[in-house]
Write a structure and sequence with these properties.
The chain is mainly beta. The protein has a single domain, classed as Sandwich (Immunoglobulin-like), CATH 2.60.40. Helices cover 4% and strands 47% of the residues. It is built from one helix and eight strands. Strands 1-2-6-4 form a four-stranded antiparallel β-sheet, with no helix packed on it. Strands 5-3-7-8 form a four-stranded antiparallel β-sheet. Strand 1 and strand 2 form a beta hairpin. It is elongated. It starts with 19 loop residues before the first strand and ends with a strand. It comes from Herbiconiux flava. This is PilZ domain-containing protein.
């Protein structure tokens, strides 16, 4: 007797892994964001939502291995703020990454 699976295994590409790592060792004032992926990230920009201060920057191009320093201040960042990172992959796909403190 043979059995037929109810669902077929998924084929195709895996989920896109966020190519960024946030180094919090300089917290609470300074953070380093590194591109740990293998492709450049275009139009990299940052938005701070909630209570806190962050200097505005023009959208960046971050090559693999490069990092950017972010100066973020706020007495209650872990409770009241979220960092949103936005970028474009070389194929034009847009991504958003929400970071908690």
């Amino acid at each position: 007797m043979t059995t037929t699976p109810i669902t077929r295994p998924r084929t195709g590409t895996l989920a896109y892994q966020v190519p960024l790592r946030l180094d919090r060792r300089g917290a609470p004032d300074r953070y380093l964001l590194r591109n740990v992926g293998d492709e450049p990230l275009r139009g990299l920009s940052f938005s701070l939502l909630g209570a806190g201060l962050m200097r505005a920057t023009a959208p960046l191009l971050l090559a693999p291995g490069q990092e950017v320093r972010l100066g973020i201040r706020g007495a209650t960042l872990p409770l009241t703020a979220v960092l949103v990172v936005r970028w474009f992959r070389p194929n034009g796909d847009e991504y958003l990454w929400r970071v908690s403190f």
